[in-house]
Specification:
Layout (H helix, E strand, L loop, with lengths): L1 H32 L2 H24 L5 E6 L6 H12 L18 E10 L2 E9 L9 H5 L5 H20 L6 E7 L7 H12 L4 E6 L8 H7 L4 E4 L8 H11 L1
Parallel strand pairs: 1-3, 1-4, 4-5, 5-6
Antiparallel strand pairs: 2-3
The protein binds guanosine-5'-diphosphate and magnesium ion.
Guanosine-5'-diphosphate binds next to helix 3.
Length: 251
Amino acid sequence: MASKKSSRRSKSAKKTNLSSQGKASTTADLGKKVDPKRQQGLVIKYIRNFFRRIINQMFAKKKDIKLGIYGPPNAGKTTLANRICKDWLGERMGAVSKIPHETRNVQVKEKVTIKHDGKEMSFNIIDTPGIATKIDYEDFMNFKMKTQQAKDRAKEATKGVIESIKWLDEVDVCLVVLDATDNPYSQVNVTIIGNLAARNIPVMIVANKTDLRKSNIRRVESAFPQYDVVGISAHKGKNMEEFYESLFRLI
Ligand SMILES: Nc1nc2c(ncn2[C@@H]2O[C@H](COP(=O)(O)OP(=O)(O)O)[C@@H](O)[C@H]2O)c(=O)[nH]1
Ligand SMILES: [Mg+2]
């Protein structure tokens, strides 16, 4: 019995000990809290941080969205880039030609502010050289180019394809421009879109040249059913409202 009692006593003694320690620390904390100098310092620090946060938010630089324009040669990528730049900057972006691989270097137009439905977004527009699986200098000779000129163009076009692919690392969102009069199930189209999907880059497909009778938006939609497809004529400026609406939905 005696031993049981003594063990109970020692347990309660332990409890008392713990609770007194707890009390002591609480008292110490309270002591700190009521220190007016420390309290004043904390309030000043809080107010300073609060205003710093507000000022940072007010002047925070909005990041420009890097919009890549990709696709096979001659689909109308530069024509679309020019259309966007003309709509919002009043100036065009680059040269357009019916001869493939006119754009052989990546072109960037910075700070293109687009407004839609009361919203405003700033883009860096990246027009890329067309991606092709085969570039043959003899094809350029059909456009009445001299042999050396055709060879140079083929060499530059090949470099351009590599540059386009390198730039995929820089892109936030991407437009894939396809000529809606062409077969959409090409190796190039599947490779571009597959590459963008693997990088988790949001994609919108632009079925261009809808002003031409041979164009077929449905065929593009059924080739890539998981993507938003917008039919436009970049050349004529047809359906650009829907294009901007889809672009804002993409972001
Ligand atoms: N009919 C028609 N032709 C277009 C359209 N967009 C571009 N083109 C023509 O297609 C050719 C290639 O255009 P371009 O913008 O240089 O293509 P890119 O190689 O993809 O940059 C040029 O002759 C353009 O005038 C369009 O909406 N309709
Ligand atoms: Mg081009």
